[in-house]
Amino acid sequence: MTTRQLFLVTCIIFLYFDITSSSHADEFESVFADISDATLSEDGKLNFSQLATKYGHSADQYNLTTEDGYILTLFNLPGNGPSVLLFHGIDDTSDTFIIRGNTSLAITSANAGYNVWVGNSRGNKYGRRHVNLNPDTDKEEFWNFSFHEIGYYDLAATIDFIRNKTGEDSIATIGHSQGTTVHYVLASTRPEYNERIKVTISLAPIAFLSNLAPPVSLVADVGPAISLLLKSLGMEEILQDHKALSNIITLICSKGLISYALCGFGALFPFSGIDPSNIEPEFLRTIFGHYPAATSRKSLAHLNQLYLRKRFSQYDYGTIKNLAKYGSIAPPDYDLSAITAKMALVAGKNDQLSKVKDVEHLRDKLPNVVHYEVLKPKLWSHLDFVWAKTVPEYLYPTIFNILKKHV
Ligand SMILES: *[C@@H]1O[C@H](CO)[C@@H](O)[C@H](O)[C@H]1NC(C)=O
Ligand SMILES: *[C@@H]1O[C@H](CO)[C@@H](O)[C@H](O)[C@H]1NC(C)=O
Ligand SMILES: *[C@@H]1O[C@H](CO)[C@@H](O)[C@H](O)[C@H]1NC(C)=O
Ligand SMILES: *[C@@H]1O[C@H](CO)[C@@H](O)[C@H](O)[C@H]1NC(C)=O
Ligand SMILES: *[C@@H]1O[C@H](CO)[C@@H](O)[C@H](O)[C@H]1NC(C)=O
After folding, report:
1. Closest listed residue to residue 171, CA positions, set 183, 188, 189
2. For residue 344, what are the β-bridge partners?
3. Which of 33, 36, 65, 312 lies deepest, with the highest CB count within 10 Å?
4. Higher pLDDT, 220 or 106
5. What whole-number distance in Å separates Cα of residue 66 and Cα of residue 365?
6. How many CA atoms lie within 13 A of 61 on its CB side?
7. Structural domains of the chain in order of their starting residue, each with its CATH number
8. 231 Cβ closer than 6 Å to some ligand 4 atom
């Protein structure tokens, strides 16, 4: 390992523990409590409904309950046009689609007249509820999920809720990152949902992770060890919304370009590529009011398996449990050939998670790809799809052309 690689791995392990260790967070909380107001921007402190109001729309809020008992918040910016559902990625929330305000996807689509729905997955701050499980005391059961359950249950319940509410047979959906994975899970394991989707626009699609490169692959290589360690420490909820930690990151990361670069390499951007002209240092003061937002250890472990096994398959519980659960030694692959709904795939040249080669592979496996595109900018990366300053110029023409054509 080179020094730089070692530094990165150390930073990431450090980050894991800081974020997951709530006793530390409590200490930080008292020390850094006052910094929060100073470091976060106004939009960093507003929640989804407040941001919607600020940018000219009133958000309706619904609680929906999944078949397996999780209670999720779904937001709606009502419009007279057809429904479009936006679904976020891992460790993220509905907020990701609105924190750019007037140029965010939620506000822009609402301004264009669409009936905009913004979903949340189990485990994040809008989905940390269950009809009878307590996320803090029933850890092993509550946090026993990955993108599989989010697709199979959460996305299914969200789509059905909207169909039921609006009377539409089918709706358009847009996913970002793991918010695309959950679509492939749902449409392949519950084929009847293909008819309930007009078109899915996948931004930074994630199904195959075979082509990850350093530093992401380095972290993924030690992922199983980290996961085991967390499990042995009883940490099933990870990367949660700890205000204190966000404060520290914000404080360190928004002090000019040098600190931005440091944070870029140490915290957020090794996973996504770095381009200060698209996600400017000042905007971090908004981002870290909303991100990270908690997920399960199992979620990361499952994604990690996609890389290590070089297949898009269900969770690998180990030989014996696999036999009991799946009737086979290896977990079954998701049957992408069963996905008959229209799929549009949009990738970025500098995306370190959704690598163009892996997206090409996905495109070749999906039977009904209606649009495939690698965006023009050379530095376009994973988080630019939701957070970049230049989305109106480089991404929205693609999105709205697809919607016009297929919705
Ligand atoms: C957003 O904040 C307002 C004001 O504090 C509060 O009334 C509302 O319930 C919050 N909404 C959500 C979804 O948390
Ligand atoms: C959703 O649930 C929250 C918390 O349980 C509750 O405060 C809120 O009133 C509910 N909202 C609706 C629209 O039912
Ligand atoms: C957002 O756009 C609307 C309409 O163009 C404008 O009236 C408003 O001032 C903008 N809001 C902010 C906070 O920039
Ligand atoms: C977690 O879920 C899997 C698959 O549904 C199940 O086999 C397992 O028993 C569950 N574990 C716990 C602790 O609930
Ligand atoms: C659909 O809406 C009706 C009436 O509001 C409700 O009774 C029913 O439970 C809903 N079904 C689903 C699947 O949400």
Report:
1. 183
2. 201, 371
3. 312
4. 106
5. 30
6. 12
7. 3-406 (3.40.50.1820)
8. no
